[in-house]
């Protein structure tokens, strides 16, 4: 899931749970699904709240003072100001959703696409796609595969806007500005949405994770960091990287005892931090100022950061 693209599109494969799907940050709060409830937990020292949702829900997206909560059978819309569920729709026969503003694109296994209003769930349009195979989200755009041909879908009207010069299955699309990075069943590409230029990536690398400025890629024997100009930032990454989300952007961090280091294309920023728990697995992290809200498989913690120093890259991390 593309958590850092909060106001863009998030692709959901119905029936597939990813660790971070059940938590999401928005403004100064973290939102979670906890035992059939949708809950706000404030990073700032204010009291949160919960509202009951479908007990089988396992994913959420938060944007524009609303939350979209979904599972295998139901999608629901929650107004964060009124603190209640405003609408819900069944998801029978649905295999993918492109959740975004102002229309949620729902794809059924029989090739029927529907556009649902983000705020009220009403059907805005429907169309049948001959030879439907797949839907992927690319930033704010939706790509649909019909036969071997890919098309860009206007999510507001449900019309095709243009065909794409791409063949075969597409996975892991991510965007930064006008560049799209995606993987097909035969190659890895950078694609410019305005000029339609293609750059094929080599080295047998696969995408592991992405933030607002960097991608973590893995080969057979190493991991590396690249920026969105395909420039190698670190050719051999050692520590486990933590994608940390925020109100405006996301970034990679890594831990070393009581030190937390933030990574940018320009260099490293080191912080001291305090933690009341110590887990190797982190499902979701959200930063507001010098506070990081951390979600573990069995709990949560709040880390307070104290700036130590900054440095430019002079070696691999």
Folded structure, characterized:
The chain has about 325 residues and is mainly β. Among the domains are: about 1-125, Lipocalin (Beta Barrel), CATH 2.40.128.630; about 235-315, no CATH class. Helix content is about 0%, strand content about 60%. The chain has strands at about 10-15, 25, 30-35, 35-40, 50, 60-65, 65-70, 75-80, 85-90, 95-100, 105-110, 110-115, 125-130, 130-140, 140-145, 150-155, 160-165, 170-175, 180-185, 190, 200, 205-210, 215-220, 225, 230-235, 240-245, 250-255, 260-265, 265-275, 285-290, 290-295, 300-310. The protein has a 7-stranded antiparallel β-sheet, with no helix packed on it. Strands 1-10-11-12-13 form a 5-stranded antiparallel β-sheet, with no helix packed on it. Strands 2-3-4-5 form a 4-stranded antiparallel β-sheet, with no helix packed on it. The model is unreliable at about 1-10 and about 15-20 (pLDDT under 50).
- Report the strand count: 32
Principal-axes geometry comes out as flat
Radius of gyration: 20 Å
> Which secondary-structure class do the elements indicate?
mainly beta
Mean pLDDT: 83
Strands of the widest sheet, in order across it, are 26-27-28-29-32-31-30
Summed up:
With 317 residues, this protein is mainly β. It has strands spanning 9-13, 23-26, 29-34, 37-42, 49-52, 59-63, 66-70, 74-79, 84-90, 94-100, 103-108, 112-117, 123-128, 132-138, 141-146, 149-153, 160-164, 170-176, 179-184, 188-192, 198-201, 206-210, 214-218, 223-227, 232-234, 242-244, 251-256, 259-263, 267-274, 284-288, 291-296, 299-312.
């Amino acid at each position: 899931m593309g958590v850092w693209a909060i106001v863009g599109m998030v692709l959901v494969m119905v029936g597939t749970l990813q660790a971070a799907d059940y938590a999401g940050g928005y403004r100064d709060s973290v939102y979670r699904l906890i035992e059939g409830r949708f809950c706000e937990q404030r990073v700032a020292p204010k009291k949160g709240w919960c509202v009951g949702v479908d007990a089988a829900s396992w994913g959420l997206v938060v944007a524009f003072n609303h939350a979209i909560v979904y599972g295998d059978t139901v999608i629901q819309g929650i107004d964060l100001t009124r603190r209640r569920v405003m609408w819900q729709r069944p998801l029978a026969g649905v295999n993918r959703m492109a959740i975004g503003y102002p229309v949620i694109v729902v794809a059924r296994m029989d090739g029927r696409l529907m556009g649902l209003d983000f705020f009220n769930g009403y059907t805005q349009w429907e169309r049948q796609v001959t030879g439907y195979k797949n839907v992927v989200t690319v930033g704010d755009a939706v790509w649909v595969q019909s036969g071997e041909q890919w098309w860009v879908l206007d999510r507001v009207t449900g019309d095709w806007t243009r065909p794409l010069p791409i063949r075969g299955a597409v996975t892991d699309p991510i965007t930064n500005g006008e560049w799209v990075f995606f993987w097909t069943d035969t190659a890895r590409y950078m694609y410019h949405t305005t000029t339609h230029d293609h750059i094929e990536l080599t080295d047998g690398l696969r995408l592991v994770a992405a933030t607002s400025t960097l991608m973590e890629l893995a080969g057979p024997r190493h991991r590396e960091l690249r920026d969105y100009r395909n420039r190698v930032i670190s050719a051999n990454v050692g520590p486990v990287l933590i994608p940390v989300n925020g109100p405006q952007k996301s970034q990679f961090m890594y831990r070393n005892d009581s030190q937390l280091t933030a990574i940018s294309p320009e260099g490293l920023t080191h912080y001291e931090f305090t933690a009341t728990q110590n887990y190797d697995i982190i499902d979701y992290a959200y930063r507001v100022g010098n506070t990081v809200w951390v979600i573990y498989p069995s709990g949560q913690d709040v880390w307070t950061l104290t700036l130590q120093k900054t440095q430019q890259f002079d070696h691999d991390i």
